[in-house]
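Hey everyone, long-time lurker, first post.

I ran two proteins through the pipeline my lab uses and got sequence/structure pairs for each. Pasting them in order. The first:
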Amino acid sequence: MKENDNYVIKLIVNNHPGVMSHIVGLFSRRAFNLEGIICLRLEEGNTSEMYLLIKNDERTEQILKQLEKLYDVLKVSLHTEEEYPVFNKFV
């Protein structure tokens, strides 16, 4: 992973009020900027997919570990922006 390159964190999370606040709060407390956020409810309705666009730095691995510890986060994966170009539609 190259520092300052864009990466996408893909999350599967429980879908209920407050989940977004917990996730964004984790980034805020660590002064880690989110470049973009997309959240979509999955078909079954009780879970959502979240895509977080970040600039990679030395704290990325730590933030991934912290996300995995959140109760409502079911799955965490890191991808290059090329693998998940979802944010390109908005630029």
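...and the second, right after it:
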Amino acid sequence: MQSFQERVFRNFRINNFRVNIDPFGGQEPELVECRSIVRDHFPQAIISEPSQPSYGQAVKSLWSSVTSDFVLHLEDDWIALEPITPERVGGLFHAGTACVKLNNAELRWDGRELRTRIEKVKFAGITVYYRRVPSFGVSPAFLTGEFVRGYSSLIDPNLDPEKQQRIHINPSLAKYTSNFDCRVLAGLGQPEIIKDIGREWREARGLEKVVSRGKSTWISSGSPSSIP
């Protein structure tokens, strides 16, 4: 949070700050600490604390509540590596662009401004051809309010909000996202502009994410914990 406060938040006029704190990865002391960190930076933040963890429901709830023309979607396990300004972000919101992703190592960026992926098109279970489609995901990004509201209305809260963009998992969502472009904002001093610090935390605790039919499950040394 501190890195984004110093390098990002202070450069923008922020109307609202909404946070979801799922009961996962800690106990009551960690919940209190998370709440305190948020309040230290944004005293008027609207905080949701559901009784059960659900990644899909968190995204659906937060995105459906967006009222601004633009929104920054962020997760707690990232740090900003350099300043991000309205001028840098706004310059990428060309006509038809709904999302500007903040480049990071996990994106495996190929240097292209447009963020796309290859999708298989099947008939009777047989791949008949491949096509390139926009790739949005839900890692940190700036998005238009119109896009996230439409996206949230189509999300199945029981599925991973990113994986269900596939045509065979959530056809309505896949069709919706195909109408927009996603671009990438890279760093000036290095390709990455943000860094994932959650991976080290997960590896230290033996947590591994397994996805099956659009549903995510975190596997640890104990019993599997299904976190949609």
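Reply from user beta_strand_b:
Welcome! Quick read of the second one: Residues 223-228 have pLDDT under 50 and may be disordered. The radius of gyration is 18 Å.
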